[in-house]
Design a protein that fits this description.
Radius of gyration: 53 Å
Strand content: 15-25%
Shape: flat
Strand order of the largest sheet: 3-2-1-5-4
Number of helices: 14
Distance between the termini: 84 Å
Structural class: alpha+beta
Number of domains: 3
Largest sheet: 5 strands, antiparallel
Length: 570
């Protein structure tokens, strides 16, 4: 951090307001002066334009170009006039005069030679009105009234800009002189203020170095500094008294620390003895842990692993030096780590806890475990950690998941059964109602399946149903559902369709897929299917009505000769 002396800072504080005030005042004077000059030039230009428009009334009306030229030359004699253009009532150029060029008569050519520059040129225009000539009976353009023409004058701002530059230079020079005078005065003032402050600083430094008996200068012409010096002197005297008292207290505290050190040494010896007893207990615990096929572990108060059995080591695949002092959550998958943290807090708060989590095996595979923990206490009742075990429940969970899957899927085709179809259809209807969308339900019944099943046997019939389920799935999106609800009956749900045509296209795709021959156990079999379609909300607003109407449409397809698609009649 860059630091500045008090003299420099005082100088800056003094100069800054003066400089800002000078700049603001000078800016105000420059702005008002420039505004006055611009206003004066604009008024002179307006007056000159009006006078020229007035004198051109008769020459323009009579077409007297000689008199018009005299009037233009008279105005061009003014130093700042750069160019003049005269137009008639139809905006045709009559005469133009430019500085350095003779006036010319240009007929009907409409042109304006000077180029307009905002900072250098002032352009004015004034209509030439018939104020002294009677226009009654004369034909004039529509809307022109008594307007004979127009005068355009361009005034050069060169003289004005020179005056502004001279005034700006003079103003900057005055500001510089004011700033120099202010700097000199501020420097003298800053030195008169900082000199006693520096003396006070040196005295305070001596006090900081421990010289409390040094003299403090007190005769300052600034009242506040005089009061500060008195305060510092009184403080030095108080510090002398406090130092003597502190030295006495240090002696007392030193004696107390000596006693405390002796007590700490005794406590350390007791801690060593307790650690030896703990090591013996852990050794006995290790023998018990090795006999258990489940993973066993012991963690200290800091949540660090300090003891484990060979089953845990084999599961982790880590050497002992790597496993020691690892945190429990390091063995757990990321998704379950927050649960582990809460469970450990529960062990210390309630004495025990249990939860199902996934542990990461040495090959990276996540294995579900049922883990528990019980708080550990020493003979004095102090909590020193917790211990627990973990049981592999992967087989139990796999069996439960298989049972859950069988409860919602057809055993033969592995398609969703009626129960799962009902859940998905109800959810799809809720979503479609919320989003104001459409969905379709198809009822499929295989034609002549009973004949094939009776002729070739149930084994062939089962294989045909499984192959049929695969072909139906091949015609659907991942979001669609195909379910077997019994025998040779299937239901297809399209949870989101743009129109009825989309559902019909999917049904026709299924017709084509099932019309191809099946190669089952050496038999080439051919079947067809009848499909009935009902859509939400056109053909029903709930599950039962949609399925009933789709079933009705399927029977209509059967009556039409099978192997066809029928949409429920609206």
């Amino acid at each position: 951090m860059k630091r500045y002396g008090i003299e420099r800072q005082t100088l800056l504080v003094t100069l800054f307001p003066i400089l800002v005030m000078a700049i603001l005042l000078e800016s105000y004077f420059i702005y008002t002066r420039f505004a006055d000059l611009d206003h004066a030039l604009l008024e002179r230009a307006r007056l000159l334009t009006r006078q020229l428009a007035s004198t051109c009334e008769y020459p323009v009306f009579s077409g007297n170009t000689i008199l018009l030229k005299q009037n233009v030359d008279a105005v061009m004699s003014f130093r700042d006039v750069k160019s003049i253009a005269i137009y008639d009532a139809k905006s045709r150029l009559i005469m133009i005069s430019d500085r350095g060029m003779a006036p010319s008569h240009l007929g009907d050519v409409v042109s304006f030679a000077p180029v307009f520059h905002e900072n250098d040129i002032l352009r004015l225009q004034e209509p030439i009105m018939a104020t002294q000539i009677n226009m009654d009976g004369l034909v004039s353009p529509p809307g022109a009234a008594d307007r004979l023409g127009e005068v355009k004058i361009e005034i050069s701002k060169r003289s004005l800009n020179l005056q502004k530059n001279e005034f700006l230079f003079f103003s900057l020079l005055v500001t510089l002189l004011v700033f120099i005078v202010a700097m000199v005065l501020a420097l003298r003032s800053a030195r008169s203020i900082t000199k006693p402050i520096l003396q006070m600083h040196q005295a305070i430094r001596r006090l900081g170095e421990g010289d409390l008996e040094s003299d403090i200068p007190r005769n300052f012409h600034i009242y506040e500094l005089h009061e500060l010096a008195d305060g510092i002197g009184d403080m030095a005297q108080q510090l002398l008294r406090d130092r003597d008292m502190l030295e006495m207290r240090i002696d007392v505290v030193t004696n107390g620390l000596r006693v405390k050190n002796e007590e700490i040494e005794q406590a350390h010896l007791e801690k060593v003895r307790l650690n030896e007893n703990l090591a013996l207990a852990l050794s006995e615990l290790q023998a018990i842990m090795e006999a258990n096929p489940d993973i066993l572990y012991v963690f200290n108060n800091q949540g660090e692993l300090i003891q484990w059995n060979s089953s845990f080591a084999k599961f982790c695949g880590l050497p002992p030096d790597k496993m020691k002092n690892m945190q429990f959550h390091e063995f757990v998958c990321k998704e379950d780590r927050s649960l582990v943290t809460s469970a450990i807090e529960g062990v210390f708060a309630k004495g025990s806890a249990s939860l199902e989590i996934q542990l990461s095996r040495h090959d990276g595979v996540l294995v579900p475990y049922l883990c528990n923990g019980v708080v550990l206490k020493n003979p004095q009742g102090e909590v020193i950690g917790f211990t627990g075990s973990g049981k592999d429940i992967s087989e139990r969970k796999a069996a439960a998941e298989h049972i859950q899957h069988m409860a919602h899927h057809d055993i033969l085709t592995d398609l969703p059964n009626r129960s799962l179809l009902s859940e998905r259809l109800q959810q799809a209807i809720v979503t479609a109602r919320r989003e104001r969308a459409h969905l379709a339900v198809m009822f499929l019944d295989l034609d002549m399946f009973k004949f094939i099943n009776d002729k070739h046997g149930h084994d062939v019939g089962d294989l045909l149903l499984k192959e049929t389920a695969g072909r139906i799935l091949g015609c659907l999106r991942e979001s669609d559902t195909a379910a077997r609800i019994g025998g040779d009956e299937f239901v297809v749900m399209l949870p989101s369709i743009d129109s009825l045509k989309m559902a019909v296209l999917v049904a026709e795709k299924i017709l084509v897929a099932l019309s191809l021959p099946f190669d089952i156990s050496g038999h080439s079999l051919s079947i067809s299917v009848s499909i009935g379609i009902a859509t939400y909300p056109e053909h029903g607003s709930d599950e039962k009505v949609l399925l009933k109407n789709a079933d009705t449409a399927m029977y209509l397809a059967k009556q039409k000769g099978r192997n066809t698609v029928v949409v429920f009649p609206a």
